[in-house]
Amino acid sequence: MKIDAPDHVEQIKTIYKPDYSLYHQAEKIFGIIQSAVEYVKAKREPVTREAVEKKAPDAFVLDSLNPQLIEKCADHFLSKKYDDCILNATKVVEVAVREAAALSNTDLGVNLMRKAFKPDKPLLKYSDTHAEQEAVMHLFSGFIGVFKNPHSHRFLEIKDPLAAFEILSFANHLLNLVKRVNKGKAA
After folding, report:
1. Chain segment 5-25, per-residue pLDDT in tens
2. How far is the C-alpha of 92 from the C-alpha of 81, rounded, in Å?
3. Are 133 and 114 in contact (CB under 8 A)?
4. Residue 184, by phi and psi: left (phi above 0), alpha (psi -120 to 50) or beta?
5. Diameter of the chain measured on Cα atoms
6. Model confidence, pTM
7. pLDDT per residue over 93-147, tens digit each?
8. How far, in Å, are 34, 48, 80, 154, 161 from residue 45 at the CA level?
9. Judging by beta carbons within 10 Å of its beta carbon (0-12, 13-18, 19+), is residue 99 exposed, middle or buried?
10. What is the C-alpha to C-alpha distance for residues 175 and 171, in angstroms, rounded to an integer?
11. Distance (Å, rounded) from C-alpha 181 to C-alpha 168?
12. CB 137, CB 58: distance < 8 Å
């Protein structure tokens, strides 16, 4: 027989003592049963995008993100300023690439990414395979083109915490890639 809430069953076993009046144990046991019911309902409910989108921003765990993303984006995320959060995340990636490639502050946006990761003579080499190096250049360029440029030029009024969290996670992954690339050598 499969038990849906085994931890709850064990909790009841530790409370229930046949020698004592059930009345004195009932309140604790009913509390555990209510918790088990909620646990089983939550476990059986399908997780939909709509349900996740309705979560409050503090339901998302930001602790595992790059410290720069936390510093520059967490306050915006938690205060539901998703446009600012996304724009800052793209700037964190942009600055990390610029610094890793030792480029100047005049190197910006998509052109910066193309210059840093260009397949023929990369400043930041991801791979010795030309197609892979080109793909990583497009990945970084695309991230900036899709997420930074629109937020730099207009207010998009993003209301979806999941979309903002996904972009933060993408920025986090790109920052991890920047750490792994070597200047002029394949990572």
Report:
1. 567 667 666 766 666 666 666
2. 17
3. no
4. left
5. 81
6. 0.71
7. 999 999 999 999 999 999 999 999 999 999 999 999 999 999 999 999 999 999 9
8. 17, 9, 26, 38, 21
9. exposed
10. 6
11. 20
12. no
pLDDT for 57-93, tens place per residue?
777 788 889 999 999 999 999 999 999 999 999 999 9
Non-local (6+) Cβ contacts of 51 within 8 A are: 45
Q: Is 145 exposed, middle or buried (0-12, 13-18, 19+ CB in 10 A)?
A: middle
Quote the tokens at residue 60: 């998302």
Residue 155 token pair: 């207010």
SS (H, E, C) 15-81: HCCCCCCHHHHHHHHHHHHHHHHHHHHHHHCCCCHHHHHCCCHHHCCCCCCCHHHHHHHHHHHHCCC
Alpha-carbon span 137 to 97, nearest angstrom: 11
Mean pLDDT rounded to a whole number for the chain: 84
